[in-house]
Amino acid sequence: MKQSRHTAIILLSAWVITFTACTEEITVDLNSADPQLVIEGSVSTAGNPVIMLSRSVNFDDPNDFPKVENAIVELSDDDGNREILPETSPGLYTTPFINGKEGSTYSLSVTFGEDQLQAESRIPQRVELDSIIVNRGTTPAFPGSSENGTFYQVQVTYKDPAGIVNYYRFLEKVNGITTNQYVFDDLLNDGQEVTQVLFDIERNLESGDLLEIEMQCIDRSVYDYFNSLILAEGGPGGPNTPSNPVSNIEGSELGYFSAHTSEDKEVRIQYE
Questions:
Q1: What's the rounded mean pLDDT across residues 78-88?
Q2: pLDDT band at 60 (very low <50, low <70, confident <90, very high)
Q3: H or E segment at 107?
Q4: On the CB side of 7, how many CA atoms lie within 13 Å of its CA?
């Protein structure tokens, strides 16, 4: 599993990676930035909403992001449902009374001391994940292949709806542990049957491993966040100059709020 680069400007908290009209990308002073409230929030069609709150740390500090307790976290939707989320463990707020629904828009409000943060995200139309394809090959020249030249290529297939702008996020998990994430748009394959390669030159699978892919249909602001995060962490072409991902949180430079569909498929790796 590849480890995320924990820096002051890339803030995924200790929790595993389980919109507003205005977004902006801001570079933070790596060594003297004041701690900021960080939101990692999601509303999914597959389960209860989860909002995780922490504080940022400076570049040279230990990667121990303090949990933010006793905040006021309110979640509402465009059907008129509104709920103050209880804190179920330090820094984690959730509720069973608001569930993700396709086409619905969700608003988040977080108040902690003088900090007042807001965000909005809409769950798009669900696109079905048709299949996972795993190809195994051997060649010493293939980037990321093991010492014996074995490599694994993972592909997903789905039918992109025609005439609709779609954004996708895929989470790759091996034996229950998230190992990578990918985001795509449909600029070049609108309305097509898509076979999308989830390219990872460091992927290492063994016979017996359980490979799981979660497909999320996300809105544009969430796509912008994760796309900029992946590039900042070292996407194609290697690491970029440190900068914050493009947050969709109003009142903060850090974090995200994602309302999305969720669908999982899994396959057992079996080779002689």
A1: 96
A2: low
A3: strand 105-112
A4: 18
Distance CA(111)–CA(234), nearest Å, equals: 33
Any idea which residue has 């080779």 for tokens? 271
Give Rg (Cα) of the chain: 19
Q: Report how far residue 220's alpha carbon sits from residue 216's, in angstroms, rounded to the nearest whole number.
A: 12
Measured distance CA(142)–CA(150) in Å, rounded: 8
d(CA 106, CA 167): 18
Distance CA 230, CA 33 (A): 22
pTM here is 0.83
The DSSP secondary structure of 218-263, one letter per residue, reads E-HHHHHHHHHHHHHHH-TTS--S-----B--BT-SSEEEEEE--E
Provide the percentage of residues in the chain whose pLDDT is more than 90. Answer: 64
**Nearest residue to 37 (alpha-carbon basis) of 63, 68, 13, 80:** 68
